[in-house]
Design goal:
mainly alpha, Helix Hairpins, 4 helices, 89% helix, 0% strand, flat
């Protein structure tokens, strides 16, 4: 039997994690700002359903990667508060993963939004 109170509590904890991500993490706020700009541009350019699916998936992936990166960094800081070469490598790899995903999201955005902009300005 499903205990719906536990499910609701789990969603509350997850929601708090999302709020904390955007409240305390500067890079997450940058990603949020860029996502808002992209969504506004997408509304203006009247993206298709498939284009929206791609854009929203990219936004979600970047946010999720940022959340994982933040969690890994906080865990590393808890386990080893001092400077340690292995902890540095772990943090660098984690932030590198966010950068890779962000670059791919930007390229997808350029392909989709850029194509629409070219159609407007170069008919």
């Amino acid at each position: 039997m499903i205990d719906f109170r536990k499910v609701v509590r789990s969603f509350r904890f997850a929601g708090q994690g999302i709020l904390d991500l955007f409240r305390f993490e500067n890079n997450a706020r940058v990603h949020l700002l860029v996502a808002c700009i992209v969504v506004i541009a997408g509304l203006f350019l009247a993206l298709s359903r498939i284009e929206w699916a791609i854009i929203l998936t990219q936004i979600g992936l970047v946010w999720a990667a940022e959340a994982f990166n933040t969690a890994i960094e906080k865990l590393c800081d808890f386990v080893s508060p001092g400077i340690h070469p292995q902890i540095k490598a772990i943090k660098d790899l984690s932030s590198g993963a966010v950068l890779i995903l962000t670059i791919m999201a930007v390229l997808a955005g350029i392909l989709i939004l850029g194509g629409h902009l070219l159609d407007i300005f170069l008919p």
